[in-house]
What does this fold into?
Amino acid sequence: MIKYLKRTWQIRTGRYETPFDGGVPFWMLSLILHLVVILVIAKMLMPAADKEDLNLVSGIDQGEVIELADLEEVIPDVVFEDAEAEPVDVGDNDLEFEEVDLASPVLSLDNETLDDFDSIVTDDGMLALGAEDGGMGAEAFAEIATKGVVGTSVAQASGAVDRISAEIMRSLENNKTLVVWIFDQSISLLEQRTNIENRLDQVYSDLRDAGVLGDESVNQLQQFRLQTDVIAFGQSINPMLKRPASNFDQVREAIGKIERDDSGTENVMAAVMMAANRYKGLHKVDSNTGKRKRDVLLIVVSDEAGDDGRLTDQAVQVCRANQIPVSVIGVPAPFGRKQTEVKWVDPDPEYDQTPQVALVNQGPESMMPERLRLDFTGNFDDLEMIASGFGPFDLTKLCYLTGGTYFAVHPNSSKRSVNWDEVANYSAYLRHFFDADAMKPYRPDYVTQAEYQKLLSSSAMRNALVKSAAFTSTGALARPQLRFPKFDEAQFVNLVTRAQRSAAIVEPKLNQLYDMLKAGEKDRPTEISPRWQAGYDLAMGRALAAKIRAETYNMMLALAKTKLKFDPPQGDQKPNNTWMLRPANTIETGSRGEKLAEKARAYLERVVADHPDTPWAMIAERELATPIGWSWQQTYTPPPGERRRMPGANNNNPKPPMNAQPPKKRPPPRL
It folds into this structure.
């Protein structure tokens, strides 16, 4: 009882200290116990009332005060601290906004496994309807059943803001609206926050001209149709306003006070749940009027996938239960990968401004790996990072299941191929992008973990693909050695023998990979999902090709020890002393190898024919362009100790002054 009273006091006041911290007199405990007993007896003696005539009377007008929901429902082990970012003072007028009266704690999250969130799904798989879950009725359920929009690409965040502002206008036509902007605090988002702030200034100016912000001479904030709140998140969650504001100057000041978080931790789902719980009272449908007090829109701005994806299903439940759509201004996810290479330039001009590579978690686009990681190829193009056509799985799933929109922002998204010099600072180096319309049928399965497991258990083909993709994600199948200098016989034999040992490790793994995928062939004819079709066919074709390459590679190494002879030099040419393996159509494993190679090509050609303009087709085309076998070629390598002519070794190139001090250089921070 005392623990409950202390917790209630902390939540209602936002203060850690409570009147119950010291010793509690025995008479107080006795008084509380007797009051509880009296109330129970009174309830037992109260005559039953007809349900149809039952009227519930609350002592508090929920339209006047909406308190911060009990955060134990969402995040256990919450520690309240003083906010690092001082809340913006919204002036005296904020006291007259009676719809929301909130404490502004900062949430510090630990990494312990969270308790299961109270489910709002009934045994039959339907959402539980009722006042406890947001006052939903049949009409409300139909509304939240509407899925969101994914695969939307824009070149700049301002384009996403324009689309969102149109949605805000539609909402304002029907009801008063509260927009909650939830900003990532990482340094890589600094420039994008500034762009959004500038664009919002114009948007709010247009809304003011349209009359939707109300008459500013009226000293009652609740009469303004549009209210805005700002929340920042990183390792902690920081509300930037004491109360929602209608004056954009207050919003701009709040955005400007967002401090940089260098922790590298992004608790985005916790921030979404906090905002949804905080304002769910506004978004409830009033049983008397049949309308909401305000429409509530949550808009997340982040350039990462987030670090608390384990909370995604809970965040979806909270938002769906209260009919609150979530939109995200984010980044495209790399195809089948968790990390991307971001072009990072030190923001401090005192340091070296040369672009560096920073690895950032911006993917993957699917719940589980659905793409093979094979480095054992002829040209190693699998190491390229390409766009998936969708955003990071958890954030995109949140938008899709709550009726929002995921905007994938990248300045190069309108191009098909990109080189390093074309990439803007703080943007991911994705080499290739794909048409959004072509990618629509290939949307990932935005379902819960349990539902995803059902998808796998119902199809041997799907199970085989995910199992094999996970098998290759360890990076065990490394690229082979292809160059073998022969300065003396013993050295050459040792070099080839070491390569054979590596091949002897890789070859069984590739055989195991092929066997995993082959177990799913029986269900391939019944698969109707284009995404799963493309994923499996590409994996099967690539696994077969890698298997033949490995077997041929091993045989070619065996030949190198006994049968290879260098051609005699021509004229003044130095005699060749190095053997190199190059991709070729020669298959050294006999007729069985030829048949498997044809099977690999058939799978890859089907991907190209059935799934054009997709990442799967692009990778299949690259694989087909690389011969499956190997051949030996010879060249020359300068022996150790031989002087080499350095290119540009003349006096025509000016040298920097000896006393010039290069700018200091520091590595990228955790982004």
